[in-house]
Amino acid sequence: MTQARTDAGAPKAPGAARARPLSPHLMQWRWHVTMAASIATRATGVALYVGAALVAIWALCLAGGEASYAGFLVVMGSFLGKLVLFGITVSLFYHLAAGVRHLVWDAGHGFQPQTANMTAVAAFAFGIAAAVGVWAVAFATGAA
Q: What's this model's pTM, rounded to 2 decimal places?
């Protein structure tokens, strides 16, 4: 007679309950704001690397002469260029707020679910509102 095996490969006694997974599959999780905030913190970190690369490209174009710098300004002054810059601005402010949120956690505060949810929403709101404010000033002063 052969023994039934669990998914992990260990022998299973006949009639015993099937072994359950150690952690739920991603599709079994219910999305919530703190999960989105965790993912957004990582994504905005990547976006800030893109922003750093754009600063390096800006410096290279500036050093490359008038023609290369003019080309850079044309690309970044286009609708798509400004959209990328706006996204990087949102990323910067959101990542800043998420960093402050983590500093509060490092101090041992803000772990209650209601507080964690509220600070996640506040970080998203700050990121968007601060970026809109910066770009509104830029457009009002003719800098954008």
A: 0.79
